[in-house]
Amino acid sequence: MRYVNKMRGAAMAVVVASAALAVAGCQPGAGGADTSDGGATPSGTVSSTASSPTPGAPKPGSSASGSSTPSASRPASSAPAASAPASSAPAPGGPAATCSAGSLKATARQAAVRPAGTGTGAAVVEFTNVSARTCVLKGHPTVAGAGNGSPEMNVPLTVKPAGAAASVTVAPGAKAWVKLTFVQVQGEADGYCVSGSAPVVYPTMVVGLPGSGAHQVALDDGQFAECDDTVTVTTVTTVQPS
């Protein structure tokens, strides 16, 4: 009986010791491991998830886009001021523009003062400013003989300029002139040219001024009869020639 009691006492001591170890392993801070979350966290350490920033979160002092927040002392940048588009029109009070072809009406008449002969001799071409703005005419004209209604089928004449080229200002409704003096036809009937060439008759002339277009004109009486396809021209002027 004494042996049996000793055995029971020993078994009870083992059970008590095992229970004590189990209770101690469940206490916080104990050397055992808590496997309730499926992983072991060493005693006395802080989980790394508590100190590491959340992936994608902005760092302190940075904006959400990753760029540094500008200091309050940094001056804000300003956009460059837009420049005004350049204007092609003359500034108020500035020089007048060259007369356009559409701003002029051109007519022609035989000159009162012309070389002796049976041809046209000389013609005065008149330019009237039909626009509402003052403009400028300048220089010596170009001259070509042409048919009626066919200015593109013309024959350029050799031009001999007389006098220095000049510019004139023409107000709305005002006029300017150039004078054309031809090599005169001589004789009767169809006449003849002193040079020996045949006289030429043109129903119209195409007269142009620099920057102001070409203008087809017919004489107010008759046609242009001349020799040698050569013409002497004056510069444009506001003094009406005779």
Total strands: 12
Low-confidence stretches: 1-91
H and E string = HEEEEEEEEEEEE
Structural class: mainly beta
| Average pLDDT number | 74
Helix content: under 10%
Q: Tell me the Rg in angstroms.
A: 55 Å
What is the overall number of helices?
A: 1
Cα separation of the termini: 170 Å
How would you describe the shape? elongated
Largest sheet: 6 strands, mixed
What is the strand content? 25-35%
Structural notes for this entry:
This protein has 242 residues and is mainly beta. Helix content is 10%, strand content 30%. The strands form 3 sheets. Strands 1, 2, 6, 8, 9 and 12 form a 6-stranded mixed β-sheet that branches. The protein has a 4-stranded antiparallel β-sheet with strand order 5-4-10-11, with no helix packed on it. The longest helix is centred in the first third of the chain and has 24 residues, at 2-25. The termini are far apart. The relative contact order is 0.17.
Give the helix/strand layout:
Layout: H1 2-25, E1 104-110, E2 122-129, E3 135-138, E4 142-147, E5 150-156, E6 158-162, E7 167-170, E8 175-183, E9 200-202, E10 204-208, E11 214-217, E12 224-234
Parallel strand pairs: 6-12
Antiparallel strand pairs: 1-2, 2-8, 3-7, 4-5, 4-10, 8-12, 9-12, 10-11
Short description:
This protein is 10% helix and 30% strand. It contains 1 helix and 12 strands.
